[in-house]
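Weekly puzzle thread! Below is a chain. First person to post its structure in C-alpha cell form gets bragging rights.
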Amino acid sequence: MPLTLPRISRISRTRLAVTAAAAAVLAVGAPAAYASLDPGPDTRSPGTTTTSQISRGDAYTETRLLFGTERPDGGPDVTDKQFMEFIDDEVTPSFPDGLTVQDGRGQWRDSNGKIERERSYELILLYPTSQAHKRDAAIEEIREDYVKEYAQDSVARLDDRLRVDF
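Winning reply:
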C-alpha cells in the first residue's frame, strides 16, 4: 500500500526550505564558533577571574529578516530605491534606535522543484530582550507588509539571544 502525504502549499514548502537552510547553517557554524571561544584550562592561581568569565553587556534579542527581490508573479524585481523606501516607511518608525541592512544573494527551491536565485537583503534588528514581546508584533507587521506590497511568498525570520555592549 503506497504511503500518501498531505499536500503542502508552495508557501509552506518555501518556508520549510528557508527554515531548513537556516537551521543547517546554524548547526554547522555553532560548534566551531563555541569551540573558538573556549580559552582552554585556566592555569592562573585560584580566586582570579579571566576576561572570558566576566559577563559583559545586556540581554538583547537579534532578529534577522531575509527579503527576496524577485516577484513570483513575474513582476519587476524590487529595486534598491523601493527597498530603502520600505525601510524608511515601515521599519524605521518601529526601530528608530538603529538597524543594519546588508545586500545578499539567496536561493531556494520553488514549488516546481526549480532552484531560484535572487538578489536579497538581510535586515538586522537589535533590541532589549525585555521588549521582545512588544517588538514581535512590529516585526510580524513588517514581514506581512513586505509580502503584500511586493508579492512575495514569505520573509524569513531568525531570532537569537545575545549579550550586547555598546
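Puzzle host: Confirmed. Bonus trivia for everyone else. The mean pLDDT is 80.
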